[in-house]
Design brief:
Strand content: over 45%
Order of helices and strands: HEEEEEEEEE
Radius of gyration: 18 Å
Distance between the termini: 46 Å
Structural class: mainly beta
Low-confidence stretches: 2-17
């Protein structure tokens, strides 16, 4: 009986420790760095796109099934309107980029950005 309780307890603990975060994307935008500013390009408003975060891995359920892995130390910046968390990351092709997660002080939205500064290109996802 003790063995069964131990096995059940271990299963429950591993279930609780293995958590994922799902965020529904309400707006996706291509952004470009032009003349010292980030400029919004084409935007879409997907019906069924999610950002799934599990540990250092980030998956986006878009048509190309984007995947990113963060590494290194998180940098935290407090602004008057939001808090921004930044990590180095790479995509599934091994390209280096920067991952930023902005949390406004008001509202429930989160903004996720993947910045490829070497080619002045980025992706911005607004979630609810």
């Amino acid at each position: 009986m003790k063995k069964i309780l131990l096995i059940v307890s271990l299963l429950l603990v591993t279930t609780f420790c293995h958590s994922q975060s799902f965020n529904k994307v309400i707006k996706a935008t291509f952004i470009k760095y032009v003349n010292g500013r980030w400029i919004d390009g084409e935007s879409s408003y997907p019906d069924n796109m999610f950002i799934i975060m599990e540990g250092s891995e980030i998956k986006i359920t878009n048509n190309v099934e984007s995947k990113f892995v963060t590494y290194g130390e998180c940098q935290k910046i407090n602004n008057k309107d939001f808090t921004c968390y930044t990590w180095n990351c790479y995509d599934k092709k091994g390209n280096d980029c920067t991952f930023m997660m902005k949390k406004p002080y008001e509202g429930n939205t989160l903004v996720f950005m993947f910045i490829y500064s070497s080619i002045n290109f980025g992706l911005e996802y607004v979630t609810e």
